[in-house]
Amino acid sequence: MTFSQQMMGSYPLTAEGVARHVTTGRPGAYALGFTTGDLFTVQFVGRADENLAEALAAHAAARRYAKFKALPLPSAHDAFERECDLFHQFGGLRHLDNTAHPARPSAASWKCPHCTIYGIGDWSAAAR
Questions:
Q1: What is the pLDDT of residues 68-126, one digit of tens each?
Q2: Residue 109 structural domain
Q3: In sequence order, which residues have a C-beta less than 8 Å from that of residue 67 and are 6 or more positions away?
Q4: How many domains does the chain have?
Q5: Radius of gyration of the chain from Cα atoms?
Q6: The model scores a pTM over 0.85
């Protein structure tokens, strides 16, 4: 099972959709996009280090994407790693609207589990 299959959703990316399906005050990772039938197409991935609902509400207000999938997580570090998972799973900069690899907080020394952007990670993934 891929990480994206573990996420909840897809739900309408509206203020009401976020309020109904996401608990406030928790870190988490998310994917934004659209659906065709039962197929969810990912266009953008992100995370919230503190409040997943707040981050998704900001995207809802921008009205750029129609649907979201999300996964609340216990920590900002977990959210960073899941955002990296999604970023690499869905093709990174070649296929997503994201303009950069997921950033880590300035004081953090976390490494991407899939590439070497922040030092040595999974060399086999970096070679792909």
A1: 999 999 999 999 999 999 999 999 999 999 999 999 988 888 999 989 887 755 444 44
A2: 3-126
A3: 9, 10, 11, 12, 13, 32, 33, 34, 35, 40
A4: 1
A5: 14
A6: yes
